[in-house]
Every structure is written in structure tokens, then in C-alpha cells.
Design goal:
The structure holds two protein chains of two kinds. Chain A is mainly beta. Helices cover about 15% and strands about 45% of the residues of chain A. Chain B is mainly α. Chain B is built from 20 helices and 13 strands. In chain B, helix 9 (about 130-155) runs antiparallel to helix 10 and helix 11 packs antiparallel against helix 12. Chain B starts with a helix and ends in an 8-residue tail after the last helix. Classes of the chains: A mainly beta, B mainly alpha. Chains A and B meet through strand 27, strand 31, strand 32, strand 35 and strand 39 of A and helix 2, helix 3, strand 1, helix 4 and helix 8 of B. Strand 39 of chain A pairs antiparallel with strand 1 of chain B, so a sheet runs across the interface.
Chain lengths: ~1150, ~475
């Protein structure tokens, strides 16, 4: 009993000190008592407040003594303290100024109930108490069961993030439902799902961002990750990504690895999801939690180095009638703009070819046999025919003139592209009884791509059910997810040649050939011969491609929760996942691929021709299967009264086994009608036609298996004192089957710790405009691993036998006994704040990430046989700021919400031992080029000293003087010859989203911005155009032609013969580096809601219509060269417009 | 539900024990291979697969050939070369200008590393394997290591003078696959002793049989070890032993291709499977200039590499080598065709024609000019147009030697042998001074006795190991 009194005193102290209470109509009382009988206290109150008292006989004898010390409290507050935990209760008659004391009747009773927040989400961990009687906390689903002994009590419900609430006890046999209102700083009440536990944001010290369901549904897409683009803080969707340099399309808080896995971890239904993210239907996702710092993410240990994205799927609610919901949308998109990337006009292209022809550039090719000379563009063939007298000069001029008028993009636009149509349908049913709840859904998506003959469709089924087997004790959760999709890739995507004047069809639409592999006269000479038609006709390819990817994915979840003691729970989870990806590329007999291969291997023997590659199609199948088994056993313990604070801890153990199989096989002479194929001779080389170079028939049949295994132990604990001091800590140890590493090095222990201080609850805090202010600081480690490395000398068998018909093996890595995991150390400092009524609220965070033991390359003495050593030799350091600012305001009927996201992050390589050979290696985009002191992905350039006034040569700076010694400028190993121009990815980015509500209407638009980065633009490089390998650039028109031009242009003169180093110097000079800064209007959404509340006659609960326009375009950009920095070398995503409807029954 | 019915305390204990219980399978669970394609090599077939990797083996360095006098670059070709290629062509002392990553050094040492992985692995051979199999593998690895060491020594170490010549440094000799020990240079005699020791063992271990005429010869056999020993002893000017090994090899295998049976208009007249090749090897990969510039067949607009006029003019019109080796053009415009590699890469392996020339040279030097001319005439009969070759007759061993050396240059052009010959023959007093005075270049010479006959060790190697650089570099 004394403890409860102490609690009462402490509570009172808190109440009084932290919340100055103002008069509520009555007199304020100051009172101090120590272990005084209740009756004497009431006497004191009578004197101070003027309320007399009375009551049932015998109450003074039954009551317990009271201790309290209050200043300026209301009468009710004082009485609440006095009657707390008493077997008597009070009622106030305000008119008569009497406090009446009654004796409680003892009676066993069990009360069930549920606690929800204003959004209808269950509130876990809320404290429910009948004053003077037992208390309990709500479970994960907001449920509680309270064993009461007294009647006539009320229930007090409180939660850290919520305003306290008093409710009367319900009638017997009825459950009580309580809705808690969020406290000031409502962000605090949002649920955080880490995949291991569900908690409130207010209970964590870590850095998390939560994208709620409304925000997820703002955007229309078939891929869930697209929906967090531009709305999640610190999450950057990288554009212009090159796969060859290990860049990820999504980064959370910048980059902290070089060669290891760069992708964030994606968690679905409590476990890492190994499949294709397109298998997740966004309609089944309730919300997305992004874990950014060590305290938030390190529970995921060695997976968490790049941040964690937790997808929480939808669930039903207890005691809810079945709710049916249907959504559908139809989205149409424009054709891609093929004219966006500027290329050299056909006329200019031919003019260059003409000039090369006259200078004898093609003579070596003409000198060689037709079959061996390499392909020549049609205009050159025409010029040659005329020169040889096969056609008249007039005819040649006419042909050339016709070529000049052709722009291949016109035909591409006509035959290869179309407007896109995307339709989505999702139907779900959810609900629950008193002991179970369920959610079931089905979805169908169909995407008719803007690329002709490319299509996508997907069926998803998803469901879960939670059932209380033993009420209050044992709960079983089951769930399943299925996705099946088909993707058709039947569009070859282009003309297959680089010269711009290839017509694709004749006047009647018949496919025309292009010159892409052999000289036209050579192919003409073959016609009528024994070989298959060897022409390449792009339109024909478009008609005959048959390539399809089939994905099948399912997962099954089983979870068991058992309450051992009050506050102590055991949980066991199991998930089985299985994904199958089957890519079938059937090269039909009509495709160039098949005809070409048959022709190449054709053998002319004395007895006739033999085709070692048999007639028929070639089937190329690649199949990937994964099977994931996850088991987790976890104990949860929570209490509200550990040294007067709230304490919770989880600890667990988990095993993860991800087995992959991958196989490819080719069938030659394949006949789809009966599935038959023809065996070929893989072990003998055949002289290939026409070069005679001996080759083996490609052998692609192989299968291999991968295993990724982990055993992990983890624990996470939090302690909150007085609702304002918070300490959190986590530890985790991961062990994995890293190859050949000694067992004691297979594991890595990672930890985090955090402190939180709700400063606004302190009595000295009086800053009224910001009634909520909280500080957080965390420190800890995340991990990452490069599974390709090993401590031993490892070899791998090469897929195909060599030309000598031998199986060959390659040494994959030399021994590295010191191999270990990458570690990322993160400090995070955060401030959360909110104004009165949440008119504005936000979070400001600063963090430092230091990656150590990163896998890097360091130069090794090549005499050892290894010139580059890959091991734990590199370090990186990022630091950044994230600011989120939300406002919520009303102007009459108009409500305005806005969200400003601002992120700054810049990484820096702090240790890297390998120096690349030359400045050129730092500039080509296809190599990872870490340089100490600079961001991992940086753009370097060669200083520019203008065009030579004599001949228009581009000039660099060598020893302080303009120079045209390109080999010295480009190929030098002295890094001082190049300049750092800026990072490839924007260090400053974010969005500003505004939403307006007026009556049933809603309007929302999102503006994205990116600053502080650069890109290298394309220009005219002569070499690729001369060899017909590039499309050139209209910059050609601005080229230096006469002395004096250098004052107006930076485009070098055209020289012959081509000098590739001169081209390279210009390409990598700093005149072609352009600022990427931009502001773009991403999208606009307009919605109109009809609900039963506003239209009682409506046959459904809610009817919502919406319009959504996406990829609207650039508002401002720093560059003046007409390039959208998101699409430097590609075509921008076309604008789309969608119409959608949502019906809730 | 049995679990639920346990006593409350027991349930807790059971739960806590669950991880412990599951831990039992822990050890094996984490020992799974991450990928079936990865392995730590232990079996003979895995070692064989390493030795059969022709992306590593069967390749020779090219900087020696680039420093020779058999070719020149056109100005255009020269301009598009990188610095080291330009420097090699013009015999610049600072060949690499500070750039590391030189394949001419790195690739042979990668061969040494692979060979050492095999040799170290064979040290732990399982009992079950047959002795002859692992002996053959050990022989192949030793041969490959010797081949790499020899090729390195011809470029990065000075000419072998005398046995007592310990003042000159040879090449680093790495004999184990571990990578942690620091590389140091051996003395010149140590280098050659290691090559000869490896080859002597290889000769004892390697299988005797050559694959049949139409099979590829990428794996070494005993006659290959003998052929390489003949080449090594020739480079050491030990003409007695060179003759002995050439003779032993030829006694076992002496097949020559009759060029009259070839299609001389073809881009690659000789296939990879030919009867003359004893051990197949090609010039190093395409990112070094030799591979891509020396030859031009389908795909290239032009070749920037031209044949030296004194060499091309030394072929008689009836000598089929002029059209089998080259796209023969007037006015210094001839360029290379494909080679015994069956591709447009130059051949750097071992073949019988070289053995005939070694035996002939050694015979001539031993003043047995009759035997010398027998070999030369037999070789040339297979090279000249049928009926046009009547046989050389000489009257002195000196005349025979001159004839043999001229035919050696013509027969073995672009085989990676000329550089060693220049060093050796000048040591013998031939006084050959290569110059660059064609294709618009003039004034470049490589004087006899120049320190530039030993190329510099790549700068990254020097920086990382602190080993001694060659003089004058």
C-alpha cells in the first residue's frame, strides 16, 4: 500500500510541476498531509475549498490514510489523489458544495476492452486502471482484460503519447472501446514497426520516418517503392544510375559502402524480403517505416548498413463488421519524347560521311574483301557505288538526297512507341470478432507499356488472420501472400544502328533492312545463296521477338504469441518464402539472332552445306528460384512500474536460410509446337562464316546454387522515466556462412544506445509557442557484408569449356585471413517539436556516419600474381541534416496541410589505398573511382584553356600553359591535372508537398528539388560518328571553323584523321560539366469524397474519386542546355494522367 | 498444445532452451558454401581446370616485340597510342612514365601465381589419386611457371652473359602462392637456374605423347619442355645444350606445314589446330597495343602497324611466307595476317620450325654446316612455292650461320623471339642497330650495348616492394 501512495505522490508532483493548473471555476487548494486519516484531509479541504462532506456510515474506518503535497490544485485533482486506491469513492454535488463518500461494493468482475487512436489504429502499451484497483497495459492490438474487484469505479486510460481519458465502466457483458486523443506533438503517437516490435514513435530515440496509408495512396503506381519517392525524408531515388559502379537506385542517408551491397534492406511481414519488390501490391501495404540511424536500424544488425524499409501489411480490426473496399484506377501516359536527346541531323551526318569518303577514310575497308571489311553506312555505300561507276552520279545524288530527308525517329515513334495504359483493381475484405480478425485481398494490375509489344500483368492475393486460441493467453496469426506476374519484352528498343537516316519501313509499311553487321553489297551478293537471309530489319525484329518473364512468389507466415505472466510474452514466428523467376527468350527462327547464328556456323563441305547450329528457333531460358526459411523466437517483457518508469525489453534468436538456385539453358533447333530440340556439338570448334575464326557453339547450360545463412541473437530495451527521460539500447550478433572465414570471425556484434529527453515536460520549460520539445541522441553500429569474398584461395569453374574443349577455372580471390564485416558507426542528434494544436510540427536531425573496414581495393605488388587486393581497407564518412516540417492550418472551410522535407548529405571517402592509373580512369563513368577526401561518386574534369585560335583544337593546361598534347593531358597519372567538379548525386534534396481540403474536395501537389550536384553532358565527339558508332550531337553546327570562332564556341573543329585522345580530352573537359540543380513539379492529385456522414442516402460508406497527374515537369533548372538533369542520357518518363475510384462498403 | 500444458515455470525454461537446442545444428548450418560455383581447389580436376585457363596461361608478353626492328607505326597509329606504347616504339628510357598496372609484368606473374596454387595444392594430394596424374599436373605447372619466368627474364632482366655473372639482377622468383611475403629480385644465374630446374622436372613428369595432328596443343607435353629448354639454352648462348634439346625434340616430332596447301588469300591461313605447333600461346590481350595493332582482319578499318621494309623485301616472291604472314602491299604498306593462333593475335608459343632453326644455328656454330643447311632446306621446301625452291648451298659455316640467322628472322617474325635474338646476336657481335626512320619518324636508334635492352620494372612494383630498378631507367 505504501508504494501506491508513493506513486500517488510522485504522480501528483509530476502533474503539478509539469502542468500549471489554472482555476476551473473553483478555488485552488494547496495542501500538505503526511499519513493523515482521510476524514481529517476532508476537513482541511472543507476549510480551504468550502466543500463539506458526508457519506455512508463506517467509511472513515474503512478508508486508508493519505499522504499528499499539492499546491494550487483543483478540488477534483485533490480528491482524485485522496481517493486513489481507496475502498471508498466520492461524488461531488457542486450545487450543494458537498463531497459525498460511498463504500465500494466488492465484486469480482472482468472487463474487456480495446483502445484505439483517432485513426482507428490499436494502441499498444496504454495503461488502463480502475482507481483503487488493478491496472494493466494494452496488448499489441490495443486489447486489455482487467480483473476488477470494486464496482462503481471508472477506468483511467493513459499513454505516453496521448491525452489521458476517463471512461465509465460499461454494462456487464459489454466491451469497452476507448479512443485516445493524441497529445500535442501527435507525430509521437504514430506507430513504428521495426519488424521486431511495434512501438510508438514517442517511445523510440531512433531516427524513423513513417509514410502512412494516406500518403502511400496519394500516388498511383504498381510498385510500392515508387510511392515513397519524394515523400520520405532522407530517401533519395538516384537517377542516371549505372549498374557497373555498384550504385543503388535508392539510398537512405547517403552512401556508406563501396563494393558491398548498396541497397537498403526491405522487410515485409517481419522478415527481409528476398524477392522482386514488384511482387508486393501497394494496396496491401498499410504503411512504410524507414529506419535510418543506428538505434532504429541496428536491430537488423548486419543487414542494416544501408537503412531499412519496413513494409507493414494491412490487418483487420477486432470487433468490426466486415468492411469491403474496392479501388481501381486507370492511368494513361504520353508517348516518350524521342526528340528529347538531341542528335546530329541526317543531313550533317551524311555531310561528314561524304567528307570522310573524299579523304579516303573508308579506303582500307574498300581494300578488304566485302565480307571482312566491317559494316559501312548506306550513304557511304552509295558514294562508293558511284565512284566505282555502278550507279550514275545523278542517281547517287538522288539517293543521298533521299537519305538526308530521313529521320529514323519518325518511324521509331510510329512503329515502336505508343501511349501507355495502366489499370489497377484491388478488392479487400477485413473485419473481426472479439477473438479474431482478418484481412483478405485480391489485386489485378495490367500495364500496357509505352513501348509497343511490351506488357505487364500481375495478380496478387493476400490475407491474414489472427485468432485468440486461449483468450488473453495464446494467439495465433497466419498469413499468406501470393503474386504471379508476366512481363513481355518484345520490343528491341531501337533501330540497331547509329546512323540517323535508317528508314524502318517502305511506303507500304514493309520492314526495311539496316546495315548493322555486314556491308550491304556483301549481303546483296549472298542473296539467293544457300545461307539464310542475313538482313537485319528492325521492324521485323519487333514483330518476331518472344521474350517473357514470369514471376511467381508466395510467402506463408505463422506467428504464435503466448502470455506467460503479466507483461511477459513469448512469441514465435515462422515465415516460408518461395519465389520463381523464369525468363524465357525464345529467339524465333525469324529473328536476326537465330538466322545470324545458323549462318555463322554454316560449313561448306564437299558434300554440301552443313549447319552445326540446326534450323529452328533458339530457346534461351534463365530460371531463378529462391526459398527462404525464417524462424524467430522472442520474449517480450514490459512493465510500467520498474523504479517508477516504463520499461520494456525484447530478446530473441533467429535463423535465416536463403537458398537460391539459378540455371540457364539453351535449346537449339527448338520447336515450340512440340517442345522438341536438336542436340549440337559443343566441343568442336567450327570455322565461322565469313571470317574463318574458329568458334565453339555457345554452351549456356549451367546450374548453380547459393546459400545465405544467418544465425542472429538480438535484444532491444527501453526505459522511460516520468514520461520524459528515455534510455534505449540494442545489441545484436549476426553470424553468417561467410566462406572460409574462421568461425569466430563469422559473427559480428553490433550495438546501439540512445537517450531521449522530453524537455517540454520539465517545470522550468515555459516556452508557450512550442509546447512540445524533445531531444534525442543515439550512437551505435550497423553492418554490411560482401559475401563474394573469402579467407581462402577460392576458385570458380567457368561456365563454358574453352576453345580447346577444356573445363577451366579462375582464382576468385587470394587468401585473406583478415576478412571481416563492414561496420557503420552512426551518431544521430534529433530535435522534435510541435506548436499548439500541431499547427506546425517537425523534426530536425544531424548525423554522422563513419564506415570502417569497408571492402575496398588496395594495390598489391603484382609480382604476387594479384595486382589489386580486395579487402577491408577503406573508410568513408558521411554527415548530414534532415529536416521535416509539417503545418496544419484552417481558414474557414479550407484546411491546408503542408510538409517540407529537406535533406543534406555528403559522403566522403576517408581512406582508400588504390590509386587508379591515370586521370582518365577517374573520369570514365564505368569504373568506381574513389578518391580520398571526395564523395564516392564524383565528377572530375580536365581544366579547359579554350579552343586554339589557329586550328580550333581544344586546349588543356599543362605546366601552366595551354597545351594540345592530349596523351599527356588525358593519360597522365598526376591527379593534380584534374579538377573536382562536384558530386554525381545531389547533396541537397527534398520536397514541398501541399494539400488543401475544402468540403469534399482535396487538392495536393508535390514539388521536388535537388541542389548542389553536377553532370557531364553529351556533345559532338568525332570518333564515334566517323566510325558510325555514335549519334553525334547538334553541337557540330557550333564547331570552330574559322579563326575567331574560338571567341564564341567551345566546340572543337573537325579534324581528319580522327584523334581519339582529342575527343576524350574534350569529352572530359570541364566545359561539358553542367550543374544539375533543379526544381520540378512531380505530381498533382485532386480528390472528391462522398461519405455517409455527409450524404446519409449514400449506399456505401465512402466513395472517393481522384485524378492524379504525374511527371509534370521541370519548374526551374540551373542548366541552359535543355537537359533534364534526371534524364541525362535517357528519355524522360512521359507525363501520365490517372483517374481512380475508391469505394468502402 | 502440449507445450501450453506444461507448468508455467517449465514453459519458460523450455522457451529459453529452444535457442540452445537449435544451436546444436549451428555448426554445420553455417558451414554451407555460399555458392556452388566457389570452391577451395583440392582435386586434380580442379587443378587441371586452373592450368587449362587460357585466359591466364598460353600468353606471352609483348613489350620485347614492340621494341624490335621488324615493324613501324604510321603517324596516325602512333598518335592514338598511349604514352607507354609511344615510348616503347621510340625506345624512351622512361618507358612507363610512372604508370603501373603493366600487363607485361602482371600477366606472367599471374601465371606464376596460378602455377603455385596448383603446386602448393598438389603438396597435399590425396592418397587415392594416381601418381601419374598428379605428376603430369605438377609437370604442367612447373612448365607454365618456367615459361612465365623465362618470358619475364627476356624483357626485365639483362642478357645472360656468363655463369659467374652474379652482379646482374634477374627477376623475382615467387615459388609459393601466398601473397604476403615481399618480392625481391634474384641474381641472374639464380633466375636461369630456376627456369632450368623447373623445366628439367617438367620434362621428367610431363606425358610423352603429343595430341594427334588435329588437336589443340594448349597443354604442355614432354617435347614442349624440350623445345623450351632449347630456346632457353639458346638465349644463354649454350649452343651445345640448345642443339641437344632441339635435336631430342625433333627426333620425337618434326612435322612441318607445307604452305603450298594453305589458302594464301585467307585472313588467317593457318588454323589453331596445326601440325607445327607444339605448345600454343599468343601475344597478350587486346588492351595492350600489340594484339590490336599488329594484325588487322575483319572489323578494323585499317591497321596502323606496317612491316619493316628490309624485312618484307627479304622474302622472295616465290616465298609463300610473304602472303601467308602478311597482307602484302607495295610502298611500306604491308601488314600482318593472322598467325598459328588461328586468330589475329600473334603466335608466341613453341613450334617445330623454331626447333629446325635452333638446331641449324647450333650446327652452324659447331661448324657442321652440312647439317645446318639440311635443316634449312627442309624447312624452306615447305615454305616456298612448289618446285621453286632448289635448296641453298654454302661453302662455310660462317655463310651457313648468316643464312640461318636471316631465315630465322624471316621465319620467326612476330613470334616474340626477335628481342632475345637482338640481345644475343649483338652480344655475339652482330652489331644490329634498330632504327625508326620509316612512316615519318627519323633519328631514333637503339645502340648496341645500350642499357635500354633491359626494360624497366614497372613503377608500381618498385614502389610497393622497394626492389632495385634496372640501370639507366
Amino acid at each position: 500500500m505504501w508504494t501506491s501512495k508513493l506513486t500517488a505522490i510522485l504522480l501528483l508532483v509530476c502533474l503539478v510541476k509539469s502542468r500549471p493548473v489554472f482555476a476551473q471555476g473553483g478555488k485552488l487548494i494547496s495542501l500538505k498531509e503526511d499519513n493523515a486519516p482521510l476524514e481529517r484531509v476532508l476537513q482541511d479541504i472543507r476549510e480551504k475549498a468550502g466543500f463539506s462532506y458526508g457519506g455512508e456510515a463506517g467509511w472513515p474506518q474503512m478508508s486508508h490514510p493519505v499522504s499528499l503535497d499539492v499546491k494550487k490544485a483543483t478540488l477534483q485533482e485533490v480528491l482524485d489523489i485522496c481517493f486513489r486506491d481507496q475502498p471508498v469513492y466520492y461524488t461531488i454535488n457542486s450545487k450543494k458544495h458537498v463531497v459525498n463518500v460511498s463504500i465500494r461494493v466488492k465484486e469480482e468482475r472482468e472487463v474487456h476492452g480495446y483502445v484505439y487512436d483517432e485513426n482507428g489504429a490499436p494502441v499498444a502499451g496504454a495503461f488502463v486502471q480502475a482507481p483503487g484497483d488493478n491496472g494493466t497495459t494494452t496488448g499489441d492490438h490495443g486489447e486489455f482484460t482487467l480483473h476488477m474487484h470494486l464496482t462503481n469505479a471508472q477506468l483511467d486510460i493513459s499513454g505516453v503519447s496521448f491525452e489521458s481519458q476517463h471512461v465509465l465502466l460499461p454494462e456487464r457483458g459489454k466491451d469497452v472501446t476507448v479512443v485516445l486523443r493524441a497529445r500535442v506533438g501527435s507525430l509521437e503517437a504514430v506507430e513504428v514497426h521495426t519488424g521486431y516490435e511495434d512501438t510508438r514513435r514517442g517511445h523510440t530515440t531512433g531516427s524513423v520516418d513513417i509514410i502512412d496509408n494516406n500518403l502511400l495512396n496519394r500516388r498511383i503506381s504498381t510498385n510500392i517503392l515508387d510511392r515513397i519517392d519524394g515523400v520520405a525524408s532522407s530517401v533519395l531515388f538516384n537517377k542516371n544510375v549505372l549498374g557497373s559502379v555498384n550504385e543503388s537506385t535508392i539510398t537512405i542517408r547517403g552512401r556508406s559502402t563501396i563494393y558491398a551491397n548498396p541497397n537498403p534492406l526491405i522487410v515485409v511481414d517481419n522478415f527481409p524480403y528476398p524477392g522482386d519488390i514488384n511482387n508486393i501490391n501497394p494496396a496491401d501495404v498499410e504503411n512504410v517505416t524507414i529506419l535510418k540511424d543506428a538505434a532504429a536500424a541496428s536491430i537488423w544488425g548486419a543487414y542494416s548498413g544501408n537503412g531499412v524499409i519496413v513494409l507493414t501489411t494491412k490487418q483487420g480490426k477486432l470487433n468490426q463488421a466486415p468492411r469491403v473496399s474496392f479501388t481501381s484506377s486507370l492511368m494513361v501516359g504520353q508517348k516518350p519524347n524521342l526528340y528529347y536527346q538531341p542528335i546530329l541531323s541526317s543531313s550533317d551526318y551524311i555531310a561528314i560521311e561524304d567528307s570522310l569518303f573524299n579523304r579516303g577514310y573508308y579506303n582500307p575497308t574498300f581494300a578488304l574483301p566485302l565480307s571482312a571489311g566491317g559494316v559501312l553506312p548506306p550513304a557511304v555505300e552509295t558514294l562508293d557505288s558511284a565512284a566505282q561507276g555502278f550507279i550514275s552520279p545523278a542517281q547517287a545524288a538522288a539517293e543521298i538526297d533521299a537519305y538526308r530527308k530521313i529521320d529514323s525517329r519518325k518511324d521509331l515513334n510510329k512503329y515502336f512507341y505508343r501511349p501507355s495504359i495502366n489499370s489497377q483493381y484491388a478488392l479487400s475484405v477485413s473485419g473481426g470478432g472479439s477473438q479474431d480478425r482478418y484481412y483478405l485481398s485480391a489485386g489485378y494490375d495490367r500495364d500496357i507499356s509505352n513501348v509497343v509489344r511490351d506488357e505487364y500483368d500481375r495478380i496478387t492475393l493476400f490475407g491474414n488472420n489472427t485468432h485468440e486460441i486461449v483468450p488473453g493467453r495464446l494467439e495465433l496469426t497466419t498469413g499468406f501472400g501470393f503474386a504471379g506476374s508476366s512481363t513481355y519484352f518484345n520490343n528491341p528498343g531501337g533501330t540497331g544502328v547509329n546512323y540517323p537516316y535508317a528508314p524502318l519501313a517502305d511506303a507500304r509499311g514493309n520492314p526495311l533492312p539496316v546495315a548493322n553487321q555486314f556491308r550491304i553489297p556483301y549481303l546483296n551478293s549472298l542473296s539467293g545463296g544457300p545461307l539464310l537471309d542475313w538482313q537485319f530489319r528492325p521492324l521485323h525484329e519487333l514483330e518476331n521477338m518472344d521474350k517473357k518473364l514470369t514471376l511467381t512468389d508466395y510467402r506463408i507466415n505463422i506467428g504464435l504469441r503466448y502470455t506467460i505472466l503479466r507483461g511477459l510474452e513469448a512469441r514465435v514466428y515462422y515465415q516460408y518464402g518461395h519465389g520463381d523467376s523464369d525468363l524465357v527468350n525464345y529467339h524465333t527462327p525469324q529473328t536476326f539472332f537465330t538466322r545470324n547464328m545458323i549462318n555463322e556456323y554454316t560449313q561448306f563441305t564437299s558434300t554440301g552445306i552443313v549447319t552445326p547450329v540446326p534450323p529452328g528457333g533458339i530457346l534461351d531460358e534463365q530460371r531463378l528460384i529462391y526459398i527462404a526459411n525464417n524462424v524467430r523466437a522472442q520474449l517480450n517483457y514490459s512493465t510500467d512500474s520498474l523504479f517508477h518508469g516504463r520499461f520494456n525489453i525484447i530478446g530473441g534468436w533467429e535463423v535465416r536460410d536463403l537458398e537460391g538456385s539459378e540455371w540457364t539453358n539453351w535449346l537449339y533447333g527448338y520447336n515450340p509446337a512440340d517442345g522438341s530440340s536438336v542436340p549440337v556439338n559443343y566441343t568442336q570448334t567450327f570455322p565461322t562464316y565469313p571470317s574463318g575464326v574458329p568458334s565453339l557453339i555457345p554452351y549456356q547450360d549451367q546450374k548453380f546454387q547459393t546459400a545465405e545463412r544467418y544465425i542472429s541473437y538480438y535484444s532491444n530495451a527501453g526505459y522511460t522515466l516520468k514520461d520524459r527521460y528515455m534510455v534505449t539500447a540494442s545489441v545484436r550478433r549476426d553470424e553468417s556462412n561467410l566462406f572460409g572465414v574462421r568461425t569466430n570471425q563469422k559473427g559480428v556484434p553490433l550495438w546501439s544506445a540512445g537517450l531521449g529527453w522530453d524537455i517540454s515536460r520539465e517545470e522550468f520549460y515555459h516556452f508557450d509557442p512550442i509546447p512540445f520539445l524533445r531531444l534525442r541522441i543515439t550512437d551505435g553500429f550497423n553492418g554490411n557484408v560482401d559475401r563474394g569474398l573469402s579467407a581462402y584461395t577460392t576458385t570458380s569453374i567457368n561456365p563454358q569449356v574453352n576453345i580447346y574443349d577444356n573445363v577451366t577455372a579462375t582464382v576468385v580471390n587470394p587468401p585473406d585471413p583478415t576478412l571481416r564485416w563492414e561496420k557503420i558507426h552512426i551518431y544521430n542528434f534529433g530535435v522534435d517539436f510541435a506548436s499548439v494544436k500541431n499547427r506546425f510540427a517537425g523534426t530536425l536531425e544531424y548525423y554522422i556516419k563513419s564506415g570502417t573496414d569497408l571492402i575496398g581495393q588496395s594495390p598489391e605488388d603484382p609480382t604476387t600474381g594479384i595486382s589489386v587486393f580486395t579487402g577491408n581497407t577503406a573508410d568513408m564518412r558521411d554527415h548530414g541534416v534532415d529536416l521535416t516540417l509539417r503545418t496544419d492550418d484552417s481558414f474557414g472551410a479550407l484546411r491546408w496541410n503542408s510538409a517540407l522535407l529537406f535533406s543534406y548529405v555528403l559522403d566522403k571517402v576517408t581512406k582508400y589505398e588504390e590509386k587508379l592509373g591515370s586521370v582518365y580512369d577517374y573520369m570514365v563513368p564505368t569504373t568506381i573511382n574513389p578518391l580520398v577526401g571526395k564523395p564516392l561518386y564524383s565528377i572530375y574534369a580536365l581544366p579547359w584553356a579554350g579552343l586554339s585560335p589557329v586550328n580550333g583544337d581544344p586546349q588543356g593546361m599543362l605546366n601552366g600553359k595551354p597545351s594540345t598534347v592530349y596523351s599527356s593531358l588525358v593519360d597522365t597519372s598526376a591527379l593534380s591535372y584534374m579538377k573536382y567538379k562536384g558530386p554525381v548525386n545531389p547533396p541537397v534534396f527534398g520536397s514541398w508537398r501541399n494539400t488543401f481540403y475544402w468540403k469534399q474536395w482535396g487538392l495536393s501537389f508535390n514539388i521536388l528539388y535537388k541542389f548542389g550536384y553536377v553532370f557531364r553532358r553529351n556533345s559532338m565527339f568525332y570518333g564515334p560518328v566517323f566510325s558510325a558508332q555514335g549519334s553525334g550531337s547538334p553541337d557540330y553546327a557550333k564547331r570552330w571553323q574559322h579563326p575567331g570562332d574560338e571567341k564564341f564556341t567551345t566546340m572543337p573543329s573537325m579534324v581528319f584523321p580522327v584523334n581519339s585522345l582529342r575527343d576524350q580530352f574534350y569529352q572530359y573537359s570541364d566545359v561539358l560539366v553542367v550543374k544539375g540543380d533543379q526544381v520540378r513539379l512531380q505530381d498533382v492529385q485532386i480528390s472528391y469524397d462522398l461519405s455517409k456522414e455527409t450524404r446519409p442516402g449514400l449506399p456505401v460508406q465512402l466513395l472517393r474519386f481522384y485524378l492524379y497527374a504525374n511527371n509534370l515537369g521541370i519548374l526551374w533548372k540551373a542548366n541552359h542546355v535543355g537537359i533534364d538533369p534526371d534524364y541525362v542520357n535517357s528519355i524522360p518518363n512521359p507525363r501520365t494522367l490517372a483517374f481512380g475510384i475508391k469505394i468502402d462498403y | 498444445m502440449g507445450f501450453v500444458s506444461l507448468h508455467r515455470g517449465n514453459r519458460l525454461v523450455a522457451l529459453l532452451l529452444l535457442p540452445v537446442f537449435l544451436q546444436a545444428c549451428h555448426k554445420n548450418f553455417l558451414d554451407a558454401k555460399p555458392s556452388t560455383t566457389l570452391s577451395v581447389p583440392t582435386t586434380l580436376s580442379e587443378f587441371q581446370a586452373l592450368l587449362d585457363n587460357n585466359a591466364v596461361f598460353n600468353q606471352v608478353p609483348t613489350l620485347g616485340e614492340a621494341s624490335c626492328d621488324d615493324y613501324f607505326f604510321t603517324q596516325n597509329a602512333y598518335q592514338s597510342l598511349d604514352i607507354r606504347q609511344q615510348n616503347a616504339f621510340l625506345w624512351q628510357p622512361n618507358l612507363f612514365e610512372g604508370q603501373g598496372g603493366q600487363l607485361d609484368w602482371n600477366a606472367p606473374y599471374e601465371q606464376v601465381f596460378y602455377a603455385n596454387v596448383v603446386l602448393d595444392g598438389l603438396g597435399n594430394r590425396p592418397e587415392a589419386d594416381s601418381v601419374s596424374q598428379w605428376k603430369a599436373l605438377e609437370g604442367a605447372a612447373l612448365f607454365a611457371r618456367a615459361f612465365a619466368f623465362y618470358n619475364l627474364s627476356q624483357v626485365f632482366a639483362p642478357m645472360y652473359g656468363t655463369v659467374a655473372d652474379t652482379a646482374h639482377l634477374g627477376i623475382p622468383l615467387r615459388l609459393h602462392s601466398e601473397i604476403s611475403s615481399v618480392s625481391t629480385r634474384s641474381t641472374l644465374p639464380q633466375t636461369y637456374q630456376q627456369i632450368i630446374n623447373d623445366l628439367d622436372s617438367a620434362e621428367a613428369f610431363l606425358p610423352v605423347m603429343l595430341p594427334s595432328n588435329n588437336a589443340s596443343r594448349n597443354r604442355p607435353v614432354r617435347v614442349a619442355a624440350q623445345a623450351l629448354l632449347a630456346r632457353v639454352y639458346l638465349s644463354m648462348r649454350n649452343y651445345t645444350l640448345a642443339w641437344l634439346y632441339a635435336d631430342s625434340a625433333l627426333k620425337f616430332y618434326d612435322s612441318l606445314i607445307d604452305y603450298n596447301n594453305l589458302d594464301t588469300t585467307a585472313g588467317i591461313p593457318v588454323g589453331i589446330q596445326n601440325s607445327e605447333t607444339i605448345y600454343q600461346a599468343s601475344f597478350l590481350g587486346s588492351n595492350q597495343f600489340i594484339g590490336s595493332y599488329f594484325c588487322a582482319i575483319a572489323g578494323g578499318f585499317y591497321s596502323g602497324t606496317r612491316i619493316d621494309s628490309s624485312l618484307i623485301s627479304s622474302y622472295d616472291p616465290n616465298d609463300l611466307r610473304r602472303v601467308v604472314y602478311y597482307h602484302y602491299k607495295p610502298y611500306d604498306s604491308s601488314y600482318l595476317k593472322g598467325s598459328y593462333t588461328g586468330t589475329n593475335y600473334c603466335f608466341g608459343g613453341l613450334a617445330t620450325d623454331e626447333l629446325y632453326l635452333i638446331r641449324a644455328e647450333c650446327a652452324a656454330r659447331a661448324q657442321d654446316f652440312g647439317s645446318a643447311m639440311n635443316d634449312i632446306n627442309k624447312l624452306l621446301t615447305a615454305r616456298w612455292r612448289s618446285g621453286s625452291f632448289t635448296g641453298y648451298t654454302v661453302t662455310s659455316w660462317k655463310e651457313a650461320l648468316d643464312t640461318v640467322l636471316l631465315e630465322r628472322r624471316k621465319e620467326l617474325a612476330f613470334r616474340g623471339l626477335r628481342w632475345t635474338d637482338l640481345r644475343r646476336l649483338n652480344y655475339e657481335g652482330a652489331n644490329i642497330v634498330p632504327t625508326r626512320n620509316q612512316g615519318g619518324f627519323s633519328g631514333y636508334t637503339l645502340d648496341t650495348g645500350s642499357v635500354l635492352y633491359t626494360l624497366p620494372i614497372p613503377p608500381d612494383v618498385i614502389n610497393l616492394t622497394g626492389m632495385v630498378q634496372n640501370p639507366g631507367r
